[in-house]
Specification:
Blueprint: H1 4-82, H2 87-170, H3 173-185, E1 191-194, H4 208-216, E2 221-222, E3 229-232, H5 239-247
Parallel strand pairs: 1-3
Antiparallel strand pairs: 2-3
């Protein structure tokens, strides 16, 4: 077997791992940002619910103050009604009192609606606080774990790149140049396995003479279609067949 074939195969595996690590290192900070942004959005929703509850309480206070104003007016009207000289004056005061009492009832209905609304808002706030507490701990744990994973990936990537440098130095310059050019043009994949008659990367069938030379693995050959460096591995012999041949 040509000495460079196992080396370029290992180099391809190393480059695949470097690409995986680089993609993960690039993706993990975005994941951290996403979960922190989601947590921040939930915090804002909770603050909005709290603000709505506070506004509800203020509105109820204002409505109760309005009731106080109407009650004071009723009290003055009753005093005036007691001093009425004629039936017409008496009925006029009575009519005004009824009007004020009707206004109070309307305000009380609005207060009741506010109380129902406040109960729902208070429940929402409580649930959101409990959920946010759990989510906050989860995000904190996930961020710490993700940052630790990034550090491990960066450490492994540095080690793998050092390994790559050693591998590249052991490969002949012509084969390494072919490998690098093909890797750039073939989305990072410069080495392909071949069957007896075709490239298993692009599925192009080989010429008979090319196939014969390839099966020896004595030369570094590239696919005439996709330009990838080829290596041939004979198909595995089933264990039963292998045992039968041994008995023969």
């Amino acid at each position: 077997m040509h000495a460079d074939l196992p080396r370029v195969r290992e180099l391809q595996q190393v480059d695949n791992r470097i690409r995986q690590l680089d993609e993960e290192i690039g993706r993990l900070p975005k994941y951290i940002n996403d979960i922190e942004s989601q947590l921040e959005a939930h915090k804002k929703n909770l603050e909005a619910d709290r603000a709505s509850l506070t506004e509800n309480q203020k509105s109820r206070g204002l409505l109760e103050s309005e009731i106080g104003v109407h009650q004071q007016k009723i009290s003055r009207l009753r005093d005036q009604m007691n001093e009425a000289k004629t039936n017409e004056q008496f009925r006029a005061f009575q009519h005004e009192i009824e009007f004020e009492e009707s206004a109070i009832r309307n305000i009380e209905d609005r207060i009741l609606d506010k109380m129902v609304e406040a109960e729902t808002l208070a429940q929402n706030v409580k649930k959101a606080e409990e959920a946010l507490k759990i989510e906050n701990e989860k995000v904190r744990s996930e961020v710490a774990e993700t940052r630790a994973r990034v550090a491990r990936d960066e450490e492994e990537a540095a080690s793998v790149r050092a390994q790559r440098k050693q591998l590249a130095e052991a490969i002949s310059s012509s084969v390494l140049r072919t490998y690098e050019l093909t890797r750039k043009s073939r989305n990072g994949v410069a080495v392909a396995r071949a069957s007896a008659d075709r490239c298993l990367a692009c599925n192009v069938v080989f010429r008979p003479q090319f196939s014969q030379i390839l099966r020896s693995n004595e030369q570094v050959l590239t696919c005439e279609s996709c330009s990838r460096i080829l290596y041939y591995e004979p198909p595995a012999v089933p264990q039963e067949q292998d045992a039968g041949q041994a008995r023969k």
